[in-house]
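Let us work through a complete example step by step.
Step 1: write down the sequence.
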Amino acid sequence: MPGDQAPAISVAATEGGFRVQGSGWPGFSELTLSVAPSNAAAGALPMNLGAVVANAKGSFNATFNWAAVATRQANVTYDLVASSASGGLAARTPFNVAAPLPGNTPSVLPPITATPQPSPAPDQPTCTVIADALNLRSGPGTAYSVIIGLPYRTAVTPWRARPARTGCKSLWMMARPAG
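Step 2: predict the structure and record it as tokens.
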């Protein structure tokens, strides 16, 4: 059961940014992610990355670009911090990934392998999540429960959209994973 284990988070470099993964959170809990100095005496300010919602199993994935942590100071050690909106649960891990310096290529651990996705049929448009994360809900509006959080660059195929517009420019749409 998701709530039976202590909440945990991890961070890894990706091409152009970093990925945060979490597990052990209560299902559908809203979490705040930030990068904060490990030592408050360092005088550096924390950087808010935003909010994510854990799925029914208590896990989440979120991807960020390097601009999200552009205000990091040299010679300051940082932690990635996740905390529940209620303030009752929190997890920390060292934020030991770094953006590339000009002319340098960052090492990426662990290696990430892309999985080819089948191309959609020509009559099926696809939409791509361009936010850091997007909540897929059971209905149109925030009053409906979150089914799953979709990370950046996730492709979906729209079924129907409201208002009468179709494709990716709707206020809301019914969607399914692309492919």
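Step 3: interpret the result. The chain has no helices and twelve strands.
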